[in-house]
Design a protein that fits this description.
Elements lengths: L1 H19 L8 H21 L10 H23 L1
């Protein structure tokens, strides 16, 4: 059951980030899940770098951290695709 929650959490974070970065039309459900889960790792690393807590569970703070990380990931992917 825990893995299912992480997939749903990743999908939600990836979907919100893709809407913010205006890449939602280009991405599917699987891409949103992957971006959201990877974004949680990236966001956790960024927050740890600033001395803050990383993803701490299934709460609003962790969702925001995952969305920030997913936005950074999508931004970097946009830079790579333009080159």
């Amino acid at each position: 059951m825990n893995i299912l929650l992480w997939i749903i959490f990743g999908a939600l974070a990836g979907w919100i980030a893709s809407m913010i970065m205006k890449t939602d039309a280009q991405m599917g459900m699987i891409s949103n899940i992957i971006v959201g889960i990877a974004g949680a790792f990236i966001g956790g690393f960024i927050m740890n770098s600033f001395g803050q807590a990383d993803v701490t569970g299934f709460n609003v703070y962790s969702l925001i951290v995952a969305i920030i990380g997913a936005i950074v990931l999508l931004f970097l992917l946009k830079l790579v695709r333009r080159v």
